[in-house]
Amino acid sequence: MIRGVRGATTVPEDKPELIYNETESLVKEIVRANAIKPEDIISVLISTTADITSGFPAKAVRSIEGWEFVPTMCTHEMSVPNALPLCIRVLLHVNTELHQKDVRHIYLNNAVSLRPDLVQEANK
């Protein structure tokens, strides 16, 4: 079965090293929480808010050991007034045996405000 696994995080400012570190941490936590192996990943879509321009988060994903050939793409999120700033969102398309209700979506840093219902579920 193919499932989408979501996650998001934020950075304190638009600096490449922060973008890379937070993206890598987020993806590693998504993978850990859902027992995903690189060979099970179909593709990764990453979006950032328009205030992130100093680096490509996909670079961080491709730098993870074993992920060199995982198809990864970056894009900008819609510009919506009062949206959470400096936010990186990730969507992994994966082959998994998990039922949709059992997939653990991961929200870190200020991004926990995006889906508090899922954050609470993940901590149970």
UniProtKB/TrEMBL annotation:
Main EC class the enzyme belongs to: isomerase
Q: Name one GO molecular function term.
A: chorismate mutase activity
EC number, UniProt record: 5.4.99.5
Which UniProt keyword terms apply here? Amino-acid biosynthesis, Aromatic amino acid biosynthesis, Isomerase
Q: Does the keyword RNA-binding apply?
A: no
Catalytic activity entry:
chorismate = prephenate
Q: Which PANTHER family does the protein's record reference?
A: CHORISMATE MUTASE (PTHR21164), CHORISMATE MUTASE AROH (PTHR21164:SF0)
> What is the recorded name of this protein?
chorismate mutase
Q: What is the species listed in this Swiss-Prot or TrEMBL entry?
A: Ureibacillus aquaedulcis
- Gene encoding this polypeptide? aroH
